[in-house]
């Protein structure tokens, strides 16, 4: 609980991963990928209840072995490749009542810590926000991106500039969601059905803890960072 508001934490983990088969339970160093998120969420000072949303019995058993509650099995129609990420969240908060805030913690962000979780919740409360998502500084600058003509092989700038900036550090800082933390007031989320609205604020996380596991390279990078 924070500021007298009860917090429900949700870990979404469907089966059927294409990039890395059984990704959510693939071992990262000495434990399954999903365990990194469960263990850090359990260290939070503010989370009142931690649950898993999954359609996959193997994932469910692994989560339970780390004492993560599984109050329901996600319907198959909400665990497809084309299912919008918000749908499992809306499904969960419509089933589980009695909470004011939901925090979504994706298992593909294993380097996110309990301190990141708690600081993001504090940031959310301090700014009296409706929605907050974690972000990190972008490593690519759209002003330096080009489209390629496949016939002539000529480059066209993605974004036009009134004058050419030659030093990378002179470009404005830009940020991208890192997929680690999504927080919302439940009533507001039910009405908007999106984590991205004109009231969404961003909580900055360092790049080192913003790895989002999507392929084998990401796993190797995460292992490297975990080894210090």
Tags for this model:
about 230 residues, alpha/beta, 6-stranded mixed beta sheet, two-stranded antiparallel sheet, 6 helices, 10 strands
Helical amount: 25-40%
- The overall average pLDDT, rounded, is 93
Count of helical regions: 6
Distance between the termini: 33 Å
Order of helices and strands: EEEHEHHEHEEEEHEH
Radius of gyration: 19 Å
Number of strands: 10
Q: Could you walk me through the main structural features you see in this protein, from its secondary elements to its overall organization?
A:
The protein is an alpha/beta fold. It has helices spanning 33-42, 57-65, 86-95, 114-126, 186-192, 216-226; strands at residues 7-12, 27-28, 31-32, 49-53, 101-104, 131-137, 146-148, 155-157, 175-185, 200-204. A hairpin with a 6-residue loop joins β7 and β8 (155-157).
């Amino acid at each position: 609980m924070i500021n007298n508001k009860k917090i429900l934490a949700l870990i979404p983990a469907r089966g059927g991963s294409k990039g890395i088969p059984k990704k959510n339970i693939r071992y990262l160093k000495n434990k399954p990928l999903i365990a990194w998120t469960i263990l850090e969420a359990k260290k939070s000072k503010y989370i009142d209840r931690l649950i898993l949303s999954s359609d996959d019995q193997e994932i469910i058993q692994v989560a339970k072995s780390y004492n993560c509650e599984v109050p329901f099995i996600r319907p198959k129609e909400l665990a497809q490749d084309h299912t919008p990420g918000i749908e499992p969240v809306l499904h969960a908060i419509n089933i589980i009542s009695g909470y004011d805030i939901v925090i979504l913690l994706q298992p593909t962000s294993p380097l996110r810590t309990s301190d990141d979780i708690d600081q993001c919740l504090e940031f959310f409360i301090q700014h009296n926000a409706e929605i907050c998502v974690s972000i990190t500084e972008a490593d690519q600058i759209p002003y330096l991106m080009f489209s390629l003509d496949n016939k002539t092989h000529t480059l066209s700038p993605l974004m036009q500039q009134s004058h050419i900036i030659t030093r990378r550090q002179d470009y404005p800082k830009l940020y991208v969601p890192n997929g680690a933390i999504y927080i919302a007031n439940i009533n507001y989320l039910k009405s908007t059905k999106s984590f991205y609205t004109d009231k969404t604020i961003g909580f900055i996380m360092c790049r080192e803890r913003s790895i989002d596991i999507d392929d084998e390279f990401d796993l190797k990078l995460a292992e490297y960072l975990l080894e210090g």
